[in-house]
Design a protein that fits this description.
By secondary structure, the chain is mainly beta. It is 9% helix and 51% strand.
Length: 113
């Protein structure tokens, strides 16, 4: 199931297999993405920012709340959930009470370079 109410697209995990690191990395590699992993302590916050690239973010473990201040939207992402954040979209992040481990990758629009 995908949620599309803004420029950001959130896709909930629907795979038959558990959303393990291996399963998510396989999905990302099938899209020719070059993922990297990060983790954070409970309640860590990332201030509002935007990027010059499209970001693909998967939550491996724990939870992350994605805040979009320009549209006043919030999405809680749990294990296996994916967020696609287009270039230029302002967003902030709050890590859940149990911390989070995530994998993300960027898609750079090579046509504009």
């Amino acid at each position: 199931m995908a949620i599309v109410q803004s420029a950001v697209r959130v896709t909930r995990w629907a795979g038959a297999q558990h959303p393990s690191v291996e399963n998510i990395l396989r999905k990302m590699q099938q899209e020719s993405l070059r993922p990297y992993m990060w983790s954070n302590m409970p309640n860590s916050r990332y201030g509002v920012r935007s990027h010059g690239y499209h970001k693909v973010l998967y939550v491996i473990d724990g939870s992350v709340e994605l805040h979009l201040p320009d549209t006043n939207e919030r999405y809680k992402l749990r294990s296996g959930d994916r967020a696609d954040i287009p270039a230029g979209v302002r967003h902030g992040t709050i890590v859940g009470t149990n911390g989070a481990k995530c994998v993300e990758a960027s898609i750079v629009n090579r046509a504009t370079k």
